[in-house]
Amino acid sequence: HLSLRRQRQMCIRDSSTGEAGSSPASPVECLYGLAAENAEFLAARGWRDLVVKRRGRLALNPDVGKIPHAAAPYLDFLRRLGAPALSTHRPWTPADVQAAADRGPHPSAETHRDFLWEESVEMCQRRHTLVLPLSAVKKLKRVRVSPPGVIPQQDRRARTVSNLTNAASPMPGVNETTVPLAPADAMQFGQALRRLLLQIYRADPRWGHVYIAKDDISDGFYNVFANVEGVKQFGIILPTPPGQEPLVLFFLGLPMGWVSSPPVFCAASETVADRANELIKANWRPPLHRLEGVADTPTPTTRPPSQPGPPPRIRARNKGPLGAVDAYMDDFILLAQGGKRRRRRLRRVLLHCVEEVFRPPDKKDDKWKKDPNSIKKLRKGDGALETVKIVLGWLIDTVAGTIELPPHRLERLLELLDAFPRSRRSCPKRELQRLLGELRSMVLAIPGGVGCLSWIQHQVKQAGERILLSLSLIHI
Fold first, then answer.
1. CB-hemisphere CA count at 13 Å for 374?
2. Could you give the angle at the alpha carbon of 173 between the alpha carbons of 33 and 427, nearest 5°?
3. Gap between the Cα atoms of 128 and 251, Å rounded
4. Sequence-ordered list of residues with C-beta below 8 angstroms from that of 190, at least 6 positions apart, any chain
5. In this predicted model, what pLDDT tens digit does every residue of 198-224 receive, in sequence order?
6. Alpha helix positions (H), 104-183
7. Rounded Cα gap, residues 32 and 246, in angstroms
8. How many helices (H) and strands (E) does the chain have?
9. CA–CA dist 340, 258 (Å, integer)
10. Which of 58, 215, 233, 368 pairs as cysteine with 332 (C-beta 3.0–4.6 A)?
11. Which value, to the nearest 10 degrees, does the dihedral of the CA atoms of residues 155, 161, 165, 168 take?
């Protein structure tokens, strides 16, 4: 196999520029070339300088601390120092790191190893990660290595996650030992769908139908960096080609799978939603936004026109036109009534408020810097103001006053139900838990389902690894 030095010559010279070498290189060769360069830089300059150099310019707006919001000081702290990641567990020894590397990645990562190698190269180029050879990692103090996993997604690129719970390891996972420093109150997404439906239901029909638009944050959690020392907690062992030294990928931003990633990131996304709602109430008229043309891209659909449903049974109205923004993690949902000019103005407010927290690209950025407002999603029709829109996994029709499952979710449900015919008498506990998880996500459309599913879930929680089934009840 090629030596690290030869691979380095064949690969990308610097992960921040993305310039190709003299000959094309595979993702594996690129990773080993980047790892060799990082190991050399680490030996010469140290860990802190390596992290600062590889993560580049910060993704949060330099003026985020000036936003008139209670979370502004905390967001400015994240911008300057990054999210802290402290552990209550003793520091790992080189033998512990070697043992974690010997256990290797999650089976899903081995199955999608080609994707994971390509994804790792791209994340290094986008300054979300850095990669080091295992020999260099074992020399670092307070470092931890976890197995990665890959989650396939419907009509979207697969997602790389860190298995920071790592129940299969004799050592406690990162999540179990993380000191809870994140603002848990920032997570307001638990009832987001119910809040949205309630606002649509209570909207005054005198102002016309309710229109929905969505906006997504590009790169999500990776926009918030972790503390320089905290990055050491987020190493994952990549699938290793035969005859090669294992590589460890470190996340420079908040990784998917860390228990503190949602509350830390929601402190930023909920600030965007609060600011947008405040400026909508203040009747702010912002300047034109550069992405408004892209945001007008309609959602492709073959659905027939909606038929008006029965009006809501609410007598006292006399309200102004609806205009509100809600957030679910990195997704923003805008509800708007009124004329076309008003609806477009409210969407413009949301686009500007996103950039108050997340820095837009400028001339100093390289080609890998993304716009904080996901242009890819806007081109798919997310930003279009429409009365029929898929929101948080549901197809909402504000004209007919209905919600329904999108086709892919309905197919998924039918597949799970087909695995439980009436003649079946037993099943593994994990399989029934998977079905219950899908049903609980759909319980909003199952009248009386909350009580039934809660009882079944309580019974399954106390069951053994094999569950007996009957027509009337589950035998534990």
1. 18
2. 110
3. 6
4. none
5. 999 999 888 999 999 999 999 999 999
6. 107-111, 113-125, 134-137, 174-177
7. 9
8. 17, 15
9. 42
10. 215
11. 90
